[in-house]
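User: Structure tokens for both sequences below?

Assistant:
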Amino acid sequence: MSSVPKFFLTLGGLAATIYLGICLYLYFWQQRLIFLPSNRWEVTPTILGVAYEEVWLPVPGQTRATIHGWCLPKGPESDVILYLHGNGSNVGGNLNQAQQFRSLGFSVLLIDYRGYGHSKGNFPTEKQVYEDARLAWNYLLRERQIGPDHILSTAIPWGGAIAIELALRYPEVAGLILEGTFTSIQDLGQIRPAYRLFPISWLLTQRFDSLGKIRAVRSPLLFIHGTADDVVPAQMSEILYEAARSPKRLLLIPQAGHNNVSALGAERYSQAILEFQRWVKAEQLAYQSLQRTENKAIAIKVSTEAKIRA
């Protein structure tokens, strides 16, 4: 065998080894690529001069795991927004937008998933962030005594997948406001050339399959996306919107990117949130009216059958 074929065999073996090594890295370390927790604070309620309450939620069965958050109260009669942030930063990086919701008349609860901010626990996983969102939901219901019909779940990009999972667990959530949400991690990988070289569907353990779940969500939905988003294409919100059952709405903010939708959308963004709130209330009243009508019809039917038997 000549030295030239040997060279190519060696080169091919090296390339295969490198490729396999990258696949193993993506499989075992994908959490480190997906979750980017930060313990540095950009802003705090004290800096903004906002009234707030510190929230600490112990994780059941985890003695060293605790969820930290801030509650920004607006008033006893206000609806509450459960704010679920994305895969980077922490509650401090999302406080300005939370304050924007508060200025619209909402109370806001922001939480950090395990490993983010002051929250304690193992490095985040898909399963854990779902659990952390459920802890916050149950805190609002049990500790704050807030009815589910007064809780809206608001989520920015990666938090959208968490909010969708939460709505599957608790279909009584009043509504979801999903900003810049993606269809799935696999779909995100397909639009990045570097990942197309690898069998992503086989390697993924953290799937965040929002498209596979959105069809089962019964809560009213408001999708918001910037048309110039170069991280999560706006087409993903459009795909989710088409797949979702009604009631649903879609708002596209022209020229807005991944992180400036609420700022660039400004008045239009705020108006859409308030209109969605009113729309949710109208849906609730219509449902309650339908329930009363059905209950009345059942009562008349039972009474009539009882008279016939008598």
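Moving on to the next sequence.
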Amino acid sequence: MTNWLDLITDVEGISVGHADDSEYETGVTALCGSSPMVAAVHCCGGAPATRETDLLGAEGLVDSIDALMLCGGSAFGLAACDGAMSALVEQDKGFKTSAGRVPIVPAASIFDFYDKKTFPHADYQRLGKIAIERSAKVFPLGSFGAGRGARAGPLKGGIGSASTRVKHFVVGALAVVNSFGSAAFDNLSALRAWEFEKDGEFGNLCPSKHPLREEIDSPSNNPLLALKGKKREHTTLCVIAFSCILPKSSLMRIARVAQSALAIALYPSLTLFDGDIVFALSSAKEKLSLSAEELALCERIACETLARAIAKGVWCADSTKDIQCFRDARAALA
């Protein structure tokens, strides 16, 4: 397929930019629209850190956004929106008011402070402006942007993306994986979303015969022992995007259904310690009439594409001095 990137930017009108702080091992990721994007959100975790998400409700005056920020830094990272808004004003983007344009930039953050020395010194406002200015069709996956300090259970987390063509439109997904649960089976035989893999994008690995049964029967899976000494601040940030115009009501439903991808790709998922959130966007300019059956197909493809994005975020992540990535941890067992 010509110029197919297998990224969320295969959805026309969307670009993505990262900005990292290597000193404090954190960063932000900006998802920008060439024109305003209709957006909805569903929060399915118990500890979210968000900004401007109330605007995305069904009763809100504004039904479209100019950009979406995915941030490290917990609530401190939401300051990235200030820098993003500054960059967007320079581009003459935003909601028109009598005083001038006001860019609409919702955001959500992960908790990535795993060293008290890093808390909370990064200049997220500066990073937000840089991420907007760097937004492009091609962007790296793994330990970049908001995925810089991410962890996925016992392994390094990161940022992943994938896309799927469906008839006359494209479904794209982006995920920042910083989960309480693991994206890999405990024996590291494969990633949990292995059944949805395309073209060997996360290793062409198959799990052993009954990996989940082995995990359930293992004494190490006593819930109290599993929690002992473990970090409890986690969030996976998810975005689903469509190249066809969908009403906010349909996007809200898709955002709810797409949380199924978290259950596919992570175990356990949607826990009390996760602030998981799913955004759904439509970036198209021309409306495509979809039947109820086609909308149901959108829901299914959104789940599968998001599950792939989550797995790719973990597969592409690199080890740090403090935590191994999946690829290195698996190689160490060989």
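User: Anything stand out in the second?

Assistant: The longest strand covers residues 26-43.
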